């Protein structure tokens, strides 16, 4: 690993040739400076005062599920201009946890609040919904801590987790009671994820997905 945050994405690329991920101490400014380089082949995350880098490569099922979610949400919210649906090129920053990451899908309700920066790449502070399609990088105990950080976003009302390789979705919905979230799991293709009146059928989420038995 490097002794100090790299100056360029190329430094990370060289380190990733020797392993699946790189983790180094860093600040929020280090994270955003690297995001300014707009690299498509390296995924960057700021977590627990460390920069974590890994190759930005996902499976076909992961991408199919992500595309379906964007399509379903975009169509459902088409006539509601207060909502905007965005993909993983839109980073989110959680100030209470100093967590910077890019969810697979996010929806913002109302004006976007941005983490103030002088340079090009800022981050959204107020997602209303975040969707994470699960992968090897987030199927671990560390993700549970990140999920607790997600819930500290004041504007966030929903977190939807989806498995791309078998039928399973898990929805976390904020309740009117402080620090209380309702968790609903969906296991069957004929289930429909319902959030704030929006209906996301699992048959549509998994359209074109081939499950490996």
Q: What fraction, in percent, of the residue positions are helical?
A: 10-25%
Beta-strand fraction estimate: 25-35%
Please mark out the parts with pLDDT under 50 across 5 or more consecutive residues, or reply none.
none
Mean pLDDT: 88
How many beta-strand segments? 13
- What is the third-level CATH name, the topology of the largest domain? tt1808, chain A
What order do the SSEs take from the amino end to the carboxyl end, as H and E?
HEHEEHEEEEEHEEEEEH
> N- to C-terminal separation?
38 Å
Highest-level CATH class of the largest domain:
Alpha Beta
Largest sheet: 6 strands, mixed
CATH architecture of the largest domain: Alpha-Beta Complex
Structural class: alpha+beta
Q: So, the CATH homologous superfamily of the largest domain?
A: tt1808, chain A
Give a structural overview.
With 213 residues, this protein is an alpha+beta fold. It has 2 domains: 9-55, no CATH class; 60-205, tt1808, chain A (Alpha-Beta Complex), CATH 3.90.1570.10. It is built from 5 helices and 13 strands. It has helices at 9-16, 28-35, 60-76, 141-150, 202-205; strands at residues 22-25, 42-47, 50-55, 83-86, 92-94, 99-101, 105-109, 127-133, 158-162, 169-174, 181-186, 192-195, 198-201. The chain has a 6-stranded mixed beta sheet with strand order 4-7-8-9-10-11, with helices on one face. A 3-stranded antiparallel beta sheet has the order 1-3-2, covered by helices on one side. The chain is globular and about 50 Å long.
